[in-house]
Write a structure and sequence with these properties.
Number of helices: 1
CATH topology: Pantoate--beta-alanine Ligase, Chain: A,domain 2
Low-confidence stretches: none
Structural class: alpha+beta
CATH architecture: 2-Layer Sandwich
Radius of gyration: 29 Å
Helix content: 25-40%
Amino acid sequence: MIIHRNKGMTLLEIMVALVIFALTGSAVMKAATDHLTNVTTLKDLTFATWVANNRLTQLQLEQQWPPENNRSGTQQLAQQDWYWRQTVKETGDRQMRAVDIHVSPANNKERVITVVSTFVTQTGLRQAGQSNDD
């Protein structure tokens, strides 16, 4: 008696292969989505940090003592409007202040992306209300 072997795949084997491909495909899609989300987050964090650093540079150029507290404004960077808010806190040293710059998208001010902090000193800065001619 001659036995003919079936050279094809059974329906069960095909279904198992499809399940494996489907799981693999969904894992690849999740990884790609997570990557794109992380790239967007990193881009926003980078731009927000640049905005904060720009504000701190402007603060140094203003040379006003003490720095103005609760100041805020907007800046356009990378075709996007950013909102920044400056807070100034006293330190244990009378000639030093802690300055925090909070940055968020201008269309969602509650979503703070980054806070950059620094310290400024009175040395070499003019008193508030004092002109450069004094």
